[in-house]
Amino acid sequence: MGRPGLSRRHLLTAAGGLAVAGSFGFAALGTGADALASSASTRVRYWNLFSGGDGYNMIAMLDSFREDQPSIDVKDSTLQWGNPYYTKLAMAASGNRAPDLAVMHLGRVPGFSPGRLLDPWDVNLLAEYGVHERDFNPELWRRAVVDGKLYALPLDIHVQLCFYRKDVLKKAGLLGDDGHMVPVTSTDDWFDVLKEARKATRKGLQTLGLHVNDLNIQWWMFVAFYTQLGGTWFDAAATEVTFDTGKATQVLEFLRRHITDGYAIAGAADAEQFVNGAPFTLEGNWSVPVFDGAELDYGATPLPPVFGKQATHAESHAFVLPHQSGRGGAANDAAHRLAAYIVRHAQQWAGGGHIPAYTPTLTSAAYRKLQPQSEYVSAMDHQATEPKVWFAGSTGLLAQRTGPVVMASTAGSAKPEAAARRIKGVLGQLLAMKNPMDGRTAAEGGAA
User: What's the whole-number average pLDDT of the chain?
Assistant: First the structure.
């Protein structure tokens, strides 16, 4: 590769400007030893963005790797989630100070200038350590490939779900014989379910948690339901906007109706209300440990196919190789070995609610015993993802520009038709922009 990266100005514009300009509150919490362990001959520097329960699970998996591979010392650092993380990672890769291994949301990979700020995986080396393309959902693997090369190794998918209280739904007559929520296949079905659930809900609680004030969740919900309608974003070459404002308006009207019909309350503490007895909440699978800890009798299903087609929003945590001008040798080999090990031993990771990307784990008897994980495992086969463009992905420019538009429509401060037109306009503006991370590197004569 040999191209150390972009100028500081480009990187601050590209990464920091995507959301929280000037936010550099990096919290690096390394758990690896500061010096090589006496029995270790190779060090792997590994950056991730996992906190809370995910952080504990990742540390446990790393400790298992250390025990299994005592010759490799893992120096892991946990940094602040979101654009602060991506800013620091981009600057490290551009300045040839990158870690050997890092975690990235798969949707962010196209914008991270593969081949410039990311190095491709050696698929033969991954195969040597037990990881093959055949072990993954084909669409998930395709999303990790750019220009014919693998730039990300998926660890999981994390999805938006419909959590439901079995005790309330049983009282409302909305549980099937299998103990799961009754099927929903249309918007009429869905609002009929909410109507009956409201009758069985304790006074003072909302029927549905919709996270109206969360721009990310509102955007993810929009992506899911727009995909259910068969909506598209751009043509195959990503040169023309094909966004359908009619379908978008349908989705926005659907989301808004939850407020106007009184099923959701803008600004409510949705997870807390669910713990206290609200029958439904729509949120990410990372809430599974929270609700498990509250000892609720609950279930979780992919977002209901209210527009006929199954599709639930999904992102993916994936391992990447940040650019190093001299990548190779023992540290690179160890990075491949570490990533392959974690991907292949993701049963504990699944306990945090994530759907493991590695098919042998996904289809194992141990995973199928997990509840409610086994109820929503089918989401792997109907992922609704953001378009594969440089400005998409978790906390990317697309979400930052469109999330507030969806929020405004759901809350009622913007009409759905106008919001749909606004989203289409944003797509056109972003498509006309150049990815700042594709500017000339310092080695190519770019600004220092």
Answer: 89
